[in-house]
């Protein structure tokens, strides 16, 4: 049995709210609970070999379903990027004192 909306084209209208902003991010922290994923975006500045400062500017809650959809979209786009520009090398990961954030 087919769903009647399966063959119907969907019009998608995108718009930005008045408070929409673009930002650069080089630090993403994640906390996970049974109900959601919480992503915290920020910019990291290394002042010296011993000191790293992170200024967080946005926190976003995602449902587990939306987090998985984001994972799929990111994976597809990273694969396409690497096919075009080459493998992305990861720098050594900065681990905050006290272990990982959960």
Largest sheet: 3 strands, antiparallel
Shape: extended
Note poorly predicted spans.
none
| Total number of beta strands | 3
Order of helices and strands: EEEH
Report the helical percentage. 10-25%
Assess the beta-strand content as a share of residues.
Answer: 25-35%
Given helix and strand content, the structural type is alpha+beta
The CATH topology name of the domain at 27-85 reads Transcriptional Co-activator pc4, Chain A
Strand order of the largest sheet: 1-2-3
Terminal Cα separation, in Å?
43 Å
CATH architecture of the domain at 27-85: Roll
In short:
The protein is α+β, with helices and mostly antiparallel strands. It has one helix and three strands; from the N terminus they run βββα.
Description:
It is a single chain. The protein has 102 residues and is of the alpha+beta class. The chain has a domain at 27-85: Roll (Transcriptional Co-activator pc4, Chain A). The protein has one helix and three strands, in the order βββα. The protein has one helix spanning 64-85; strands at residues 27-32, 37-48, 51-62. The protein has a three-stranded antiparallel beta sheet with strand order 1-2-3. Strand 1 and strand 2 form a beta hairpin. It is extended, with a radius of gyration of 18 Å. The termini are far apart. The model has no long low-confidence stretch (mean pLDDT 88).
């Amino acid at each position: 049995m087919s769903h009647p909306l399966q063959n119907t084209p969907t019009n998608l209208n995108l718009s930005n709210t008045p408070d929409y902003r673009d930002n650069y991010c080089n630090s993403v922290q994640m906390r996970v609970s049974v109900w959601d994923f919480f992503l915290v975006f920020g910019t990291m500045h290394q002042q010296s070999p011993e000191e790293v400062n992170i200024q967080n500017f946005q926190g976003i809650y995602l449902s587990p379903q939306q987090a998985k959809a984001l994972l799929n979209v990111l994976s597809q786009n990273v694969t396409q990027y690497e096919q075009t520009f080459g493998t992305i090398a990861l720098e050594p990961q900065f681990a905050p004192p006290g272990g990982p954030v959960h």
